[in-house]
Specification:
By secondary structure, the protein is mainly beta. The chain is 13% helix and 36% strand.
Length: 200
């Protein structure tokens, strides 16, 4: 198999435009990558939440994570508060994921009525009760990324209220799935790299 390098810089712009994939096909193809499901939250006078699967660990030192938010999302404007929370949802929390993805839900504090939440000890952001893991973050850096913005957050606090239950909510091929207790690692499975490491 041969590997060919591709031109970079201004000269590559026209070629990149011609080679741009069909957005619908791109979405379906990216859907082959299974992810967890989170609820991203901000506090302050006008708290807000949204369901997101574009969340990942970045660095252990300093402790960094990232979320990608679309430019048109209400959350994009609300992140100007400088702090956000991330709640990693458990398998039984699909209803919460659907609720915070519903554009017809109330805005502001009203959207949290009836939702089990705690207030984070460091940044005062809402965190979803019963989630597998929860993080409070301070915005550390911001990067433009096409129709989204990448928000890097420095972790200020974290907890694992749902630890010990191998029941995660997943998003795969445009649908919610559940990683239940029967989905255990194979006997010869080995741990993956720590966050921030790259192996080859």
């Amino acid at each position: 198999m041969s590997i060919h390098s591709r031109a970079t810089g201004p000269a590559a712009t026209a070629a990149d435009a011609v080679d741009a994939p069909d957005p619908r096909l791109l979405r379906r193809t990216l859907g082959e990558f299974a992810t967890g499901v989170t609820v991203v939250t901000v506090g302050g006078g006008t708290p807000h939440a949204m369901t997101a699967n574009s969340f990942t660990s970045v660095s252990l030192d300093p402790p960094l994570v990232l979320v990608c938010i679309g430019h048109q999302a209400v959350m994009h404007r609300r992140l100007s508060t400088g702090y956000f929370g991330v709640s990693v949802l458990a398998a039984h929390q699909e209803e919460i994921a659907r609720y915070f993805a519903d554009l017809s839900r109330p805005l502001g504090a009203a959207q949290f009525e009836g939702v089990d939440c705690d207030i984070g000890p460091q940044a005062g952001v809402p965190l979803i009760g019963g989630a597998l893991a929860r993080f409070e973050c301070q915005v550390w850096n911001v990067h433009d990324a096409g129709d989204h913005t990448i928000f890097l957050g420095r972790v200020l606090s974290m907890d694992r209220p749902g630890a010990g239950r191998p029941e995660a909510l997943l998003f795969y091929q445009g649908r919610f799935h559940r990683l239940g207790p029967d989905a255990v690692p194979a006997p010869d499975a080995v741990p993956g790299p720590d966050a921030g490491e790259v192996t080859s």
